[in-house]
Amino acid sequence: MEVYATVITGFEKVAAKEISSKIENVRNCQPYRGNVRFTLEKDSPSETLKNVLKMRSVDNFYVVFYENVIEGLGKMEKEKAVKTLQNEISFMNWKIAIEAWQAANGKSIFGGTDLIVEQMRNFMKTGINAEVTENSPSFRVTCKRAGDKSAHQFSSMDAAWKFGGQINNVFGWRTSMKQFDIEIVMRIERDSILVMIALNNESLFKRNISAYGPTTMRATMCYSMISIADPKPGELIIDPMCGGGSIPIEGACAFSDSFFIGGDNHVLALERCFANLKSASEQFPIPCNFFLWNACHLPFNDNSVDVIVTDLPFGKKLGSVMDNRLLYPKLLEEWKRILKIGGRLVMMTHDKRSIDSAILKDRDAWQTDSTYIVNVGGLSCLCIRLSKI
Length: 389
Ligand SMILES: C[S@@+](CC[C@H](N)C(=O)[O-])C[C@H]1O[C@@H](n2cnc3c(N)ncnc32)[C@H](O)[C@@H]1O
Hints:
Keywords: Methyltransferase, RNA-binding, Transferase, tRNA processing. This protein is α/β, with parallel strands linked by helices.
């Protein structure tokens, strides 16, 4: 079974590492731009797919059930192109798609795979549309075209609309754009087509947070940053500028052998931290705590903290680049004081210049271990891991 995972652009290798290390039966796990693809051994039990959905660095999972190159698709006029896409429906492995969906969702669609196979056979033989019944699942088709969109004479909407129409004809599924049981995604790049079924209904990065702030980070981003710091059991990990607490909360859930503490100098941010901690702790207690503090004067002894993971004010929604030029060197000075020798500092910022110049000012104190250019809500940001020398 071929799985396609959408991940944060820039953190593809982090996601590939998590998938290969946590899921059994994974073969050929490869990072691409914004996604990771891998194969699950053929007879993977449905438990494996449920484990796939527990990955913390992945936004969405899909199972690929059709992949092809249609020569000349880009040159075809609109009507012919969408008709060609429509006609491919019978070459797709709908049995695999439905089996995967059922395993991931822990429920069956009416009639299961037997009905799907029978409906496809009938349609191919008679050309008569399947009936829509009250048991028919609802679905939507999304089409995403990558690369040069002017390479096609049809729009993504045209392709999704026509293909969705054909699914309705063959299987009698009900179209619904907002509330749907099944989501089918077509990804078209020039002449290449990938058709996939979504395994999760709601994006997996939507977890932990109930009180959103102006710069709340996705849980998948928080997880990726923390895993770059490589937390060890028993380590003390702090986020000195934690906003609504998204990094410490994700850390305490994902790395329960380490200790997470967050803080912020804004009272409202602290209120959001406690609201998020309360709502995230509904199923099981999450051991982390939050404090009102100034990240330039932290209540920790010298050489006492193992790891700092933080998302700096970028100077976009919060603060300004002028502020950052003064603030970043002060932060690094204080964080150098509290970190143990060999302690790790992972930071994210859009203001690459200010952070580069702050590191350069104290270059003998820090070793750069790795850097990542990451897409944060459309902004190209730098995530950097330093170690205190
Ligand atoms: C980019 S936001 C962090 C967002 C956070 N990761 C989240 O998901 O909510 C940066 C935070 O730094 C805080 N901050 C700015 N200057 C600070 C300082 N001197 N001490 C502590 N926090 C500070 C701001 O209040 C803001 O909440």
